[in-house]
Amino acid sequence: GGTAADAAVAVSLTLGVTEPFNSGLGGKLVVLYYDAASGKVSYLEALETAPAGMSVEAMRARPAEERKRGYPSSAIPGCVAGLEMMQKKWGKMSWRDLVKPAVGYAREGFPLADKQIVEFQNKFDLVTKDPEAAKIYYPGGKVPTNNAILKNPDLAKTMEEMGENGPRAFYTGEIADRLVAASKKGGGAFAREDFKNYRAREFPRGCHRPPHPEVPRDQGLGQNRLDEPGTGGAGGQGLADHSPDRLLQLWRHAGPTSADRKGFLRGKPVHLGENGARVGPGTASRRSR
Fold it and tell me: What count of other Cβ atoms lies within 10 Å of the Cβ of residue 53?
């Protein structure tokens, strides 16, 4: 009796248990959702945000490798807030029911497949630097064997709290308190207010014209350019979907768009007045020549 949104929420939460190296409550989320009933396409963004107390100067002073991982480099996760918005907008099932499958896998365990064992082998030195993570993912200090049952009772308890008290419990309850305490112990900058103030956002359909004051920090920029009127191949206008000309123009446009997204947009609000040239009229057609 659920919707595609319900299914996506339940799967995402479950992958946070069964796919620990790629998914999890500590991650981020972007959603491009088509609602068949209304015909509307929506874009939700729940990316990580830096804690207010994080020092830019101190971060820049750290070696590049240290900036990639660890409590001092950790940001406020948006995954749960994004799933909450998705479920409220398009879901029919209760949040509690959507969390149940993930709780079951975390408490009862699941068998590890060959591909996952490779990930466990590759990440051993990195993950075992954290005693808590090592205890969960490398019981006895060893890499799990194929089809070993991996359990995570602490994660089951956390998800149960979210199921009973709602997704905001991740940001306002004991879960947030534990995250803040762990961050402080590890030299990070998490504060309770950072979690309390976090919200996912919904953007209007990509448009390079005012009055929209901000552009999405992630893939929305690429869609902006694909939709740009008058671009011919970049937006696919006048060209068959899989024609060589269209594919060539899309390929030419993709690389520079990715560079702009990473270099100028990701991680901070960017106003059109500041970087309008990167999202304004003509960008896609120039880039796709």
Answer: 12
